[in-house]
Design goal:
Blueprint: E1 5-16, E2 19-30, E3 34-38, H1 45-51, E4 60-65, E5 68-69, H2 77-81, E6 84-87, H3 99-109, H4 115-128, H5 144-157, E7 162-166, H6 174-189, E8 193-197, H7 201-207, E9 210-215, E10 218-223, H8 225-230, H9 235-246
Parallel strand pairs: 3-8, 3-9, 6-7, 7-8
Antiparallel strand pairs: 1-2, 1-4, 4-5, 9-10
Helix pairs in contact: 3-4, 3-5, 4-5, 5-6
Length: about 250
């Protein structure tokens, strides 16, 4: 049974002035699929991710997420973004609000839920990231890994159809990475569609359905983790994989 595509991006170009960062990238992601974007710094991975919810405006191309044409001028982009959760490298939590307060803010302001409804949904989201006992803690009282898990809870509380992760563990101390990856693995098992930019190659090997290798603004090669890590066809992919495996 083929699952229907939930992300369909075709011919995505992005220019920053004279710099041509994305050079006609296609990305189709099926429901419940976990797709990993790998490649050297500056290859366009994060820019592509940010184009998928229009944090960056593509210079040209088409992007349809869950049936909504994101580049159509008539599209209410704020409403569309409710379907697309995003987790960044930095946690972007409000320091003066508790973990629960950070999560319920958007539920009340964006979705218009009552305080009681927002708190119930916020606590359920904290439970999913194994932080129900930290609801009343402020960000300064949490480790970096816990703060990132609150950021994930904030995104999933909005019940998005797709989750985008942009280097979610790169700001964390190595011993804190595992907790965040464990939560991402559970989301995957629960059927969340995910697109992940990350240098966590072990996680990519173990959890991804598909891996796309990007270089110089193009998708050079894509395949299963076994194909990309075990038998890459393209010389540039082989060079990248051998380089990261030496570190």
């Amino acid at each position: 049974m083929t699952r229907r595509p939930i992300i369909e991006a075709y011919g995505i170009h992005k220019h920053f002035g004279q710099l041509h960062v994305l050079k006609g990238v296609d990305l189709v992601v099926a429901e419940r699929e976990l797709v990993f974007l790998i490649g050297p710094s500056g290859s366009g991975k994060s820019t592509l991710l940010r184009c998928l919810n229009r944090l960056e405006e593509p210079s040209s191309g088409t992007i349809v997420v869950d049936g909504i044409d994101l580049l159509d001028r008539r599209t209410d982009i704020n409403k569309a973004r409710q379907r697309i959760g995003m987790v960044f490298q930095s946690f972007n939590l409000y320091p003066h609000m508790t973990a629960l307060g950070n999560i319920t803010l958007a539920l009340r302001k964006v979705l218009g839920l009552s305080r009681a409804e927002a708190e119930a949904r916020g606590r359920a989201a904290l439970d999913r990231v194994h932080l129900s006992d930290r609801a009343d803690h402020y960000p300064s009282q949490l480790s970096g890994g816990q703060q990132q898990r609150v950021a994930i809870a904030r995104a999933i509380a909005l019940e998005p159809r797709v989750m985008l992760f942009d280097e979610p563990t790169s700001a964390l101390d190595p011993e804190l990475v595992g907790g965040v990856l464990a939560v991402m693995r559970e989301l995957r098992e629960d059927g969340m569609t995910m697109v992940v930019v990350s240098h966590e190659m072990g996680f990519a090997r173990a959890a991804a359905d598909r891996v796309l290798f990007m270089d110089n603004g193009l998708v050079v090669e894509e395949g299963t983790p076994e194909e990309i890590f075990g038998a890459p066809r393209h010389e540039r992919t082989r060079a990248f994989i051998s380089q990261i495996e030496r570190h």
